[in-house]
Amino acid sequence: MRGWTRPVAALGLATALLAVAACGRDAEGAQDEGPGTAVSDGPATGEINIWAMGAEGEKLSALVDGFTKDNPGATVKVTPIPWDGAHDKISTAIAGGETPDVALIGTTWMGEFARTGGLDPTPENLIKPADFYPGAWDTTVVNGTSYGVPWYVETRLFYVNSDVARKAGVDTPPSSWEELKAAITAMQDKGGADWGVSLQPGKTGSWQSVLPFVWQNGGAIQRDDGSFAFDTPEATAALEYYKSFFTEKLSPADLPQGALEPDFVKGKIGSFISGPWHIGILKEQGFEGKYEVWNMPTKVSGTSFVGGGDLAVFKDAKNRDGAWKFVSYLSRPDVQATWFQTIGDLPAVKSAWEDPALKADPMLAAFGTQLNDAKSPPTIATWDQIAAGFDDLMEQLVKTDMTAAEMAKSAQEQATSIGTGG
Amino acid sequence: MTARPQDAALRRGRRAARLRRAVTGWGFVSPFTILFAVFMAGPVLISLAMSFTDMRSADVRDPLGVNFVGLDQYAKVFGDPLFLKASGNTAFFVLVGVPLTMAAGLAVALGLNSGLTRFKTVFRVGYYLPVVTSIVAVSVVWRFLLQPDTGLVNGLLGLVGVDGPNWLDDENLSLPSLVVMAAWRNLGFQMVIFLAGLQAIPANLYEAARLDGASRRQQFRHVTLPMLRPTMLFVAVITTISYLQFFEESYVMTQGGPLNSTLSVSFHVFKQFGFGNYGYASAMSYVLFVAIVALSLLWFRLLKRKDQ
């Protein structure tokens, strides 16, 4: 008996201590920090540490020379980190107060990180919101305060096999939901495709293909009062429309991994929705010039999804002013255009699209047009979880006999019970 | 009342010696004790404490500024349909996987122990190889094998005229597919342990049984199995513990899908941590921990030697 009492007592004590110490949350609720303090004039000095993920992290050094030429007193140290685990690494850094000065932040993480209080509000004297695509700028705004700058963007369009479309007699991109359905049906019936389209059948990230239809129908994720709006008639009708592609056997529901691109190239799949990275993937498959892209069809609007990466400066940054100056440099139209030429990231700054390299390419121009009508999910701390639940329900919607109304109701209940995370 | 001064000095001397011994002892164990306290016991206690709070990832800068919510998180665990689904999947994985793996492991061990003498080492290495191979590599290869159109499994089925299903994308087949893969992967470990157990059975027991006219089947039933009891207990406990925490298989191969049919409890906990629900995820981990302890105790009870 004696052997047991001590650990149990210690455990009880620890719990009790915590209960006492945890005297509860401050009752501030949603706070609006207001814009960040102004950044000093003059060139940047000192070392600026930046973390960036993926290809951005590997190639960012290419832009550093241009910055240090104007700011000879500054050095920029880029640390590439892998996307896997980047979220945890940043959140650990914020918890420990050992952050870099700047980091690339996935757009859907902004809500969560801003709420930790670890991000520095964007200074108004350096960054002008109107320079950026509005949907992209929205990803930085949490509770009315902006905590970063959109660095690059991506949006979703329809990729269409030209050969199949021609055989189906589809000469112009469909402009309405009815035309889209008719075009896809024709590609399957007359164009020789096994599937007119491949829409994502639920699973991770499918909300990015589904929510555009909700937005196109005038629906929203949240109402103005902050409550969720998954069960509105607009959203339900959009889900119904999405599901109809599966019930009418126009889209496969269980395409094996890695089959999309080969089947698209072979003309077995007529079209699919994806972002700009597929330009590169299709080029690798030797399919350049044999496909076209369509902007989203218009119902009430022709909205698509906008994602990408934001740059944020941390409150614990050792070189805050230098960090913001570097961010502002990366947002210069000419630097954004250079960056596009370096790794193909689409510029978040509107005027950068005037660059000949972007303007001349009709494929890219379509993305540029779409970005003017593209939305991002709300910057709430729980968005990742709500989105994952939504993806689960999407899978049920397309694979089982669940109706759109049932799905909308479940999505609404799920989101409401998860909440917005304060 | 007449305490002699020598006595006091003696006592003081003894106390000093005891103190010195204690200091020396603690000095020797301190490398482990400190590491254990800081990196094991500390975090474990903190996560336990965390499970009684509403801590989320947004609280990392101010971890004490959270609310104490008592058993709310635990109550929420049992009302979470996904957790219940994941528990069902995990239970299936354990209930089917553990007996399957043990039967396969024992069968291979028996084969290697008696019949095969020529290529014993080759077989032993062959069966053990999956155990030491990275689970991620194994999963990726199996994903290729199980591909519906181009996979080897359906290719073989096609030879005998069977149109193979889409194994990993069928709600009813995905979890069994993972169980079979796990059994294949883990039977090597069990084989080694069972082989050791079999070789520890004295040969004279079999000799006596044969003299009494016992058939091979009777020998297995009445000599081998009872003598293997402790080995089986060990194997059962180890396998149950690892299967209760199955994670990588579904993480790499199916991401928990389709329709959450391969979502395990560990995977669900992992996802909740990812969503930043630290309090909730900790509570769920402790529920899993209690289940592991309970099942292990159950095994001890079931396979306890009768004479003890």
TrEMBL record, chain A:
GO terms for cellular component: ATP-binding cassette (ABC) transporter complex, substrate-binding subunit-containing. It comes from Phytomonospora endophytica. Belongs to the bacterial solute-binding protein 1 family. Keywords: Signal, Sugar transport, Transport. This is Multiple sugar transport system substrate-binding protein. GO terms for biological process: maltodextrin transmembrane transport; maltose transport. Residues 1-21 form the signal peptide. GO terms for molecular function: maltose binding. CDD domains: PBP2_MalE.
TrEMBL record, chain B:
The keyword Transferase does not apply. It is a multi-pass membrane protein. It is found in: Cell membrane. GO terms for biological process: transmembrane transport. The chain crosses the membrane at residues 21-46, 91-113, 125-145, 187-206, 227-246, 278-300. One of its GO terms (cellular component) is plasma membrane. Keywords: Cell membrane, Membrane, Sugar transport, Transmembrane, Transmembrane helix, Transport. It holds the Pfam family BPD_transp_1. Residues 87-299 form the ABC transmembrane type-1 domain. Belongs to the binding-protein-dependent transport system permease family. PANTHER family: ABC TRANSPORTER PERMEASE PROTEIN, INNER MEMBRANE ABC TRANSPORTER PERMEASE PROTEIN YCJO. This is Multiple sugar transport system permease protein. It comes from Phytomonospora endophytica.
